[in-house]
Write a structure and sequence with these properties.
The complex is a heterodimer of chains A (101) and B (653).
Chain A: H1 6-25, H2 29-54, H3 58-88
Helix pairs in contact in A: 1-2, 2-3
Chain B: H1 5-34, H2 39-60, E1 67-75, E2 84-90, H3 92-119, H4 126-145, H5 149-167, H6 174-205, H7 210-219, H8 230-247, H9 256-259, H10 265-274, H11 279-286, H12 288-291, H13 295-316, H14 322-342, H15 346-373, H16 391-405, H17 411-426, H18 428-453, H19 470-485, H20 497-501, H21 507-512, H22 517-522, H23 530-554, H24 558-565, H25 567-574, H26 579-624, H27 632-652
Antiparallel strand pairs in B: 1-2
Classes of the chains: A mainly alpha (101), B mainly alpha (653).
């Protein structure tokens, strides 16, 4: 079994971390959404890398499956963002922090 | 002649159901349909009960038998001997009570037709009044007819309920509401003992049926066949007597009766003078077998009676409210009855109950008639000299007063004298108290007559005084005839001339004797001297009346001067020996403080514990509340942190 080059995993982790940081730091709903897509890709890279490590096709299958799901989810999420924007005329996520707990 | 059980059964059921039917009809149709005619169903129902009572009375006349009529198996439990049945015990005592109760009720209800028209709030309450009265007659007859202690208890509590409802009839008046509550609570104390007594009877004899219980007591056996100790029977008797003390307003539970005068006058006449308050006397007479087992118990009964008679008479001397004077007089006369029972003269006690029902109902209705004419005022300081304005009320009232005062040859004279005679034979102290009370009775009764009807004519301002209508006067006149003549029920004409004619202990006593055998078995033979005592008590009554005349007609300033000369005695009497105040300090306030203490414990200790329990989720909620703010980044950061922690755990462990 060939060894797993570390840079695949590092790339995946880096993409995920970048997406997470983006998601946590930006207030714009669309940018936050883009950040989640970046995290997705980090996961997809990992899936492919580990699939290759184990010599399975499962990882690549999941990657393709994820891309489809991500496309569908992008449509849904953008639709939601538009509705939210219509409500408050703002893309700021904090505009929705109205629950006092 | 024997009694026909089928007739007795029909009559007994009708006596109960006719007044009840009247009540139900008035209750259902009174307000929407009958309105001003609401008295008719009750009058007719009670009239039917009177008729049936007389039929039962006729059946019992001339026979010494007692009959038990089974009507219905009420609670079938255990072996058949201990079943609770609705049954009637018909004997001479029952008959006398039935006739007295139903006839006086009928007269009072007829009287109420006019009286309540002006004194009820006519738009609402007229039909309510008659519905209650019908219910009362039903309950009282159930009490009297009962053949077992359970039915007796039912009637006993039901008359208490009617009393409560009728005292509080003008419930809009705070004093009436308070008086009703007081009557109910004070009676509850007595009835608690009464209930315990009945439970003890059931524990001891395993049945509540009169006949079965009395037979076992006579043989001195309990249900298990063991010997019945005197302690056990005395405990039962004393507990039952608690109920009698409450219901018949004897010391120390008499405090409710004077306040009960807040009810309409016909109610005072019927329930709080003539019938309900005599239930205690009836019950003791009925349970004579149990009471006579212990001489101590009988001494207690006699002592309570004599003390109450004297005590209430002393208070009646100084009251200004006519109905209050009559209320204390009732307590005093009930004391006489218990004195009679206690000295084994149950026949005399029931005889006094019988005559008292007539003249006391008459006096209360007379006072009601005065109140009616005076526009609701009953305080004797505010009117006087009414004999020309209210001629018929005056005449009947004087007859009632003479009877109450024990004026020779009127009904009260015969019955009271008999009791004093027997008391004297038992103990000169008790007899002496009886005689002293007799003088006081004559005095306060005629104080009332002279104050209200003699002297200068005075009426309260703005009152158009007028004699009452015939619906009120006819019952007064009939009762006056009763007050004049009821005493002769027990006076048998003898051959020995005038004094022989005066010999008491006649027809009524003979009729009652079979029902009151237990008392006779223990009674000491009452020797001669009856005539001397009779003359003496007659003279004392006349002396009392003369004294009242001297104080309240001849020298009208004397009462005030006496009050000034002996302020302590006057204040004691006027303030009812401070009995209400003593109860307030000794019972009401400690109970209220206890209640406050319990409330405080509940409020601070119990509620504090519960608060402690609730604080845990509340604090948790307070701590975690910030996490649910709705901030997207916040959620994400939490998730990230959680992920990090899990990752660290996985990597490090």
């Amino acid at each position: 079994m060939p060894g797993l080059p570390a840079h695949y995993v590092v790339l995946g982790a880096a993409l995920f971390a970048l997406g997470l940081v983006g998601f946590l730091t930006r207030r714009n709903l669309i940018v936050m959404f883009l950040s989640t897509e970046v995290m997705f890709q980090g996961v997809v890279v990992n899936l492919v890398a580990f699939g290759r490590l184990h010599g399975h096709l499962d990882g690549q299958m999941f990657a393709l499956f994820l891309l489809v799901v991500a496309a569908v989810e992008a449509g849904l999420a953008l639709g939601l963002v538009i509705l939210l924007y219509r409500r408050k005329s703002s893309l700021d996520s904090e505009a929705w922090a109205t629950m006092s707990g | 002649m024997t009694m026909d059980i089928a007739t007795l059964k029909t009559c007994g059921i009708l006596i109960l159901l006719l007044p009840l039917a009247g009540t139900l009809i008035v209750g259902a149709l009174g307000r929407p349909v009958l309105r001003g005619r609401s008295h008719w169903p009750v009058i007719l129902g009670v009239a039917g009960a009177v008729l049936c009572s007389f039929i039962v009375f006729g059946q019992a006349l001339g026979t010494s038998k007692q009959a038990v009529v089974d009507v219905y198996d009420w609670i079938a439990t255990g072996d058949a001997g201990g079943w609770f049945r609705i049954n009637f015990l018909i004997d001479p005592l029952t008959c006398i009570m039935l006739v007295t109760v139903t006839s006086v009720s009928l007269l009072v209800i007829i009287y109420s037709r006019d009286y309540m028209r002006d004194h009820g709030h006519p738009e609402r309450g007229y039909e309510r009044f008659f519905a209650y009265l019908g219910l009362f007659v039903f309950s009282m007859c159930a009490l009297v007819l009962a053949g077992n202690f359970l039915l007796l208890y039912l009637g006993w509590e039901a008359v208490g309920l009617c009393s409560y409802l009728l005292i509080g009839f003008y419930y809009g008046r705070p004093s009436a509401a308070a008086a009703a509550k007081k009557a109910f609570l004070v009676n509850r104390i007595g009835d608690f003992g009464f209930g315990l007594g009945i439970l003890l009877i059931y524990l001891t004899f395993n049945t509540l049926d009169y006949q079965a219980v009395f037979k076992m007591v006579e043989h001195g056996r309990t249900a298990s066949g063991a010997a019945l100790t005197e302690g056990r029977s005395a405990a039962i008797a004393l507990l039952l007597f608690c109920g009698a003390v409450g219901k018949s307003a004897q010391l120390p539970l008499h405090v409710w009766l004077p306040d009960a005068m807040e009810g309409p006058s016909p109610v005072s006449a019927l329930i709080h003078a003539a019938t309900m308050v005599t239930a205690g006397v009836y019950m003791v007479a009925r349970c004579g077998v149990i009471f006579t087992q212990s001489a101590t118990v009988m001494a207690v009964v006699a002592a309570v009676g004599a003390l109450t008679a004297l005590y209430a008479a002393l208070i009646a001397l100084t009251q200004h409210d006519m109905k209050r004077v009559l209320a204390y007089s009732t307590i005093s006369q009930l004391g006489y009855m218990f004195l009679g029972l206690g000295v084994y003269a149950a026949g005399s006690a029931i005889f006094h109950l019988f005559t008292h029902a007539f003249f006391k109902a008459l006096l209360f209705l007379g006072a009601g008639s005065v109140m009616h004419a005076m526009g609701g005022v009953i305080d004797m300081r505010q009117f006087g000299g009414l004999r020309r304005i209210l001629p018929w009320t005056y005449r009947t009232f004087v007859i009632g007063s003479l009877a109450l005062a024990g004026f020779p040859l009127l009904s009260g004279f015969w019955s009271k004298d008999e009791i004093i005679h027997h008391a004297m034979a038992q103990s000169p102290l008790l007899g002496g108290m009886g005689l002293l009370t007799a003088v006081l009775t004559a005095f306060y009764t005629f104080r009332m007559v002279y104050r209200a009807f003699h002297g200068a004519e005075r009426v309260p301002q703005g009152v158009h005084a007028h004699e009452s209508g015939k619906w009120m006067l006819v019952p007064l006149c009939i009762l006056a005839v009763g007050a004049l003549g009821a005493g002769y029920a027990n006076v048998t004409p003898h051959a020995g001339g005038f004094l022989g004619f005066l010999e008491p202990g006649g027809a009524l006593g003979g009729f009652l004797a079979p029902a009151l055998k237990p008392f006779a078995a223990h009674a000491e033979h009452v020797g001669g001297g009856g005539h001397v005592l009779m003359v003496l008590s007659g003279l004392l009554a006349i002396a009392g009346i003369a004294g009242a005349w001297w104080f309240h007609v001849k020298r009208r300033d004397w009462p005030a001067r006496v009050a000034e000369a002996a302020p302590t005695a006057y204040n004691l009497s006027y303030n009812k020996f401070y009995m209400d105040e003593i109860y307030d300090v000794g019972v009401v306030r400690p109970l209220k403080s206890g209640g406050k203490l319990a409330f405080g414990i509940d409020d601070y200790f119990i509620d504090g514990l519960i608060w402690l329990v609730t604080i845990v989720p509340r604090l948790l909620g307070f701590a975690l509340r910030g996490l649910q703010g709705g901030s997207l980044q916040g959620y994400a950061a939490t998730m990230g942190a959680g992920l990090l922690i899990i990752l660290l755990l996985v990597l490090l462990l």
